[in-house]
UniProtKB/TrEMBL annotation:
Keywords of this entry: ATP-binding, Nucleotide-binding, Transport
InterPro entries named among the record's database cross-references: AAA+_ATPase, ABC_SmlMolc_Importer, ABC_transporter-like_ATP-bd, ABC_transporter-like_CS, P-loop_NTPase
SUPFAM superfamilies: P-loop containing nucleoside triphosphate hydrolases
Keyword match Transport: yes
Pfam families: ABC_tran
Lipoprotein keyword on record: no
Name this polypeptide is given: ABC transporter family protein
Length: 209
């Protein structure tokens, strides 16, 4: 689970955001508020990517372990952004493989099978060898999701990942994303301006000013 205990984020030593929350496995905490309120900065703090002039106090815990001083690449926190941010020079399969921890797979065949299983989960079986620039926006969003899941994160952060999708596609990708997180018992924090996103997430909602 993810615990945010007495978190205060500062900008130039002035409090920007204050909150406490717990996110159980498979649940999504939604954080809403206007631009500049510190929503994305909160995600950066959880991911270990906070930079000056921002700073954070309080304890960030994953599975009861305080991670404040742990380097970003060791926190096992996955992030999805507004853009898919796939590697255009790689195939779909290579994009997913890039995120996978090598020690989890004894050979290439096991990794290949795992990639295909992830693609099947979001109804994209058979496209592992395609280049990402041949994919639609919705397909790229789904590949971005499973690349995040392939890294085997303990927590997933969602920084308005659905905002650039059209209305029909947005609902579909949103459902896929939340169902995959729930199936894998991964706690997540969603930042959004869209109340429909919060409703679909189904978890607690924190509104910041």
């Amino acid at each position: 689970m993810l615990s945010l205990e007495n978190i205060v984020i500062y900008r130039d030593d002035k409090p920007l955001l204050q909150l406490s929350a717990e996110v159980a496995k498979g649940e999504v905490l939604t954080v809403m508020g206007p631009s500049g309120a510190g929503k994305s900065t909160l995600l950066q703090a959880i991911a270990g990517q906070l930079q000056a002039p921002f700073s954070v106090t309080g304890q960030i815990k994953i599975n009861h372990v305080v991670i404040n001083e742990i380097d970003a690449h060791l926190r096992k926190v996955g992030i999805m952004f507004q853009d898919a941010l796939l590697f255009e020079h790689m195939t779909v399969g290579e994009n997913i493989a890039f995120a996978m921890p090598d020690k989890a797979y004894k050979n290439k065949q096991l990794k290949h099978d795992a990639i295909n299983a992830l693609l099947v989960a979001v109804e994209l079986d058979g496209i592992a060898d395609r280049t990402v620039n041949t994919l639609s926006g919705g397909q790229q969003a789904r590949v971005s999701l499973i690349r995040t899941l392939a890294s085997e994160p303990d927590v997933v952060l969602l920084d308005e990942p659905f905002s650039k999708l059209d209305v029909a596609l947005r609902s579909q990708i949103r459902s896929w994303t939340f169902s995959q997180l729930k199936a894998r018992n991964i706690p997540a924090v969603l930042v959004t301006h869209d109340k429909d996103d919060a409703l679909a997430a189904g978890g607690n909602v924190i509104e910041i000013l």
